[in-house]
Design a protein that fits this description.
Order of helices and strands: HHHHHEHEHEHEHEHEHEEHHHHHHHHHH
Radius of gyration: 25 Å
CATH topology of the largest domain: Rossmann fold
Number of domains: 3
Number of strands: 8
Shape: flat
Distance between the termini: 26 Å
Structural class: alpha/beta
Number of helices: 21
CATH architecture of the largest domain: 3-Layer(aba) Sandwich
CATH superfamily of the largest domain: P-loop containing nucleotide triphosphate hydrolases
């Protein structure tokens, strides 16, 4: 996400930092380039104008131009203003004082409402809450079936409706179910259309009146750029939104919607969808996103993801094995599973400061892990824990069982040995890189 914008800004700031002392003309030229970069990233032109004006006001002052590192100062100002542009800080879901908290998801057909409903329910479940999904898209039987399937996948109950039912009349029965089962969050998956029309808005207004939701969240497809901003504006005018969920952020290289929506609607982005899997819905943190746009990485999010994926007890066990240099194939497959829980590998590596530049043009393929897992799964427990016994006949059997070649098995064994050496150095230097599996 934001790939094209990050590249442009990186080039602009590189020139600024390389000048040493800055003149007002240098800053003016850089701001013109920033303005073009934002417009090319599909950011709303009024938003761009205001943003550049605010940066200029702060960047051409004596304090900045006369400082020892004026280029760095300008980068900090742009970072701060990007944070403000995207909302300033993380905006959480407002929970009702008396449960259940009713959250109503709205949006156009195809924006990802049904999937987002399940992802949101999954997030609440992880936080120890007891969500209930409510199928209100009665005009589309496939949406009801999809929500039922997703609910089963995350073990969250779904209040089902029948095709053609009045969505407004569904809510009382759903509320009764929530109260009987002690559900403290209700997520309403409402119907969408291919475009914003009056019939859709009237139906949603009726549901809002009946359900009195604590939160109305618009689910918008980030890849539609300015259309997402216009859609958000239309929904907000009719329904008074509490926030926005931007889906398909992992497929949006420009990022114009994320940088425009808050200014245009005065409503925060609360979550972003960064992948298709059920747990790839993240709270939106403007300051972290600004750092990623400017190539500074996002170490805080990386640490949080690692803490979620790896329990404290597991981390201590791994540390003990590393100290004793006893890292086996059994441990390797366990680590791979935990890394996969953290999200797409490309996203994870992009959170490491400076890594984005190094990965430019490199194709990060999560499927590389599949072959590694297949080879390890074809080993016996004894072989996983002691690679020394892997002779020619054993390697041939493993290759056949995993659908790979003996060369693939040899390559993995070699990389495993390299990892063990690297981990030995890690004990001394307290720093190590991420292993790369090449197949």
């Amino acid at each position: 996400m934001f790939e094209s914008l990050s590249d442009r800004l990186e080039g602009i700031f590189k020139k600024l930092k390389g000048r040493g002392l800055l003149r007002e003309e240098d800053v003016e030229l850089a701001l013109k380039e920033i303005r073009m970069a934002l417009l090319e990233a599909d950011v709303n032109f009024r938003v761009v104008k205001d943003f550049v004006g605010k940066v200029k006001e702060r960047a051409v002052g004596k304090e900045v131009l006369d400082s020892i590192t004026p280029g760095q100062q300008v980068v900090k100002i742009v970072h701060d203003e990007l944070c403000e542009l995207m909302g300033g800080g993380n905006s959480k879901i407002n929970l009702a004082a008396n449960p259940p908290t009713v959250i109503m998801l709205v949006g156009l057909h195809g924006s990802g409402k049904t999937t987002t409903s399940a992802k949101l329910a999954n997030n609440f479940k992880k936080d120890g809450r007891r969500p209930l999904l409510v199928a209100m898209d009665t005009g589309r039987p496939a949406a009801i079936d999809q929500l039922k399937s997703l609910g089963a996948q995350i073990d969250v109950p779904v209040h089902l409706s029948s095709p053609g039912d009045d969505p407004v009349k569904i809510f009382p029965a759903a509320l009764k179910k929530a109260n009987l089962e002690g559900r403290d969050v209700m997520i309403l998956d409402t119907a969408g259309r291919l475009h914003v029309d009056d019939d859709l808005m009237v139906e949603l207004e009726h549901i809002k009146k009946a359900a009195n939701p604590k939160e109305i969240l618009l689910v918008a497809d980030a890849m539609t750029g300015q259309d997402a901003v216009n859609i958000a504006k239309s929904f907000n005018e009719r329904l008074d939104l509490q926030g926005v969920v931007l889906t398909k952020m992992d497929g949006d290289a420009r990022g114009g919607a994320a940088l425009s929506i808050v200014s245009v609607t005065d409503r925060p982005i609360k979550f972003i969808g960064v992948g298709e899997k059920i747990d790839f819905l993240e709270p939106f943190h403007p300051e972290r996103m600004a750092s990623r746009i400017l190539g500074m990485g996002d170490v805080v999010s990386l640490v949080e993801k690692a803490q979620e994926a790896v329990g404290i007890e597991e981390a201590f066990k791994l540390e003990d094995k590393l100290k004793k240099n006893r890292f086996t194939f059994e441990d390797l497959i366990s680590q791979i599973k935990q890394i996969k829980k953290m999200g797409p590998l490309e996203n994870i590596l992009g959170m490491i400061p400076g890594m984005g530049k190094q990965l430019k043009g490199v194709n990060i393929d999560d499927r590389a892990f599949v072959k590694v897992e297949a080879i390890i799964n074809s080993m016996t427990k004894q072989e996983r824990n002691n690679y020394v016994i892997l002779n020619g006949s054993r390697k041939k059997r493993i290759a056949t069982g995993s659908g790979t070649t003996v060369a693939d098995v040899n390559r993995l064994v070699k990389q495993h040995l390299q990892m063990k050496k690297m981990m030995k150095r890690f004990k001394k230097s307290k720093g190590m890189g991420m292993p790369q599996f090449k197949f």
